[in-house]
Amino acid sequence: MRTDYISWDEYFMGIAMLSAMRSKDDNSQVGTCIVDSDNKILSLGYNGMPTGCDDRLMPWKRNGAPLDTKYMYVCHAELNAILNSHAPSLKGAKIYTTLFPCNECTKAIIQSGIKEVVYLSDKYADSDNNIASRRMFDMVGISYRKYIPADNKITLEL
What we know:
alpha/beta
C-alpha cells in the first residue's frame, strides 16, 4: 500500500489554491473549498465579480474613488463558495481558504453553519476586519487554524 499520499488538509487546501488561480484580480487571488464531515466537497469559490457582471468592464484597481475600485463590487471567495453551494446545508462543514476570512465573510460563515475554518495566510491579522472575525468566531465556537504545509511539493503537469 502506498504511504506517500497527501493528507485531507493538503488535498483540500490544494483545491482552494487551484481555485484561487481562477481569480482575475491582479493583486489578490483567494480560493476556498468547503467540505462536509465525510470529506466530500460541497462547494468551491474564488474572489471575483458577481455572476453576470463582465470582468472586463469592472474596476480591479485598489486605489482611487470608491466606485472606481474593486472593493464595492468583488465577491470574496468564501462568500462565493457559500452562495454557490448546491448542498442542502453547510451545517457542520469545514471551509479551507487561502486567506483568513474578513468580517463580512465571517458573518456568512457563521450564518451558514460552518464549524471549522482552515486558512493558509493571515496577512491582515492586525486589521480591524480580522480582529472582528476572530472575535465572532470565538464567540460562537467556530474553530480556526492555520494550515501548516507539509514538506511535500505538489506539481500539476498539463
